[in-house]
Write a structure and sequence with these properties.
Radius of gyration: 13 Å
Number of helices: 3
Strand content: 25-35%
Strand order of the largest sheet: 3-2-1-4
Distance between the termini: 22 Å
Helix content: 25-40%
Number of strands: 4
Largest sheet: 4 strands, parallel
Shape: globular
Number of domains: 1
Structural class: alpha/beta
């Protein structure tokens, strides 16, 4: 297993309409870098279908926070040990 070099952490709030486009664009950029990467989406208490749409994406980690306390940024950075983008 290759060691992950980069982590991309993205807080999501009410973003169901843009998930596929966002994920595609991020992966295109990351594929241009040398090294492996992981993408972490943090659903920050969205009341729309953001979590449902996130679960449709492949090769991503999802953290779900039930209420929007602005904790998404803190939470994702605690999960990363690589270079944070």
């Amino acid at each position: 297993m290759k060691m992950v070099k980069y982590s991309v952490g993205i807080p999501i709030y009410e973003g169901e309409d843009n998930m596929k486009i966002l994920d595609k664009e991020i992966k295109q950029v990351m594929n241009q870098l040398s090294g492996t990467y992981k993408i972490i989406y943090v659903n920050d208490g969205s009341s729309d279908n953001s979590l449902k749409e996130l679960k449709k994406l492949s090769k991503v980690k999802i953290i779900d926070i039930n209420k929007n306390y602005g904790q998404a940024t803190d939470n994702k950075s605690k999960k990363m040990q690589e270079i944070y983008i």
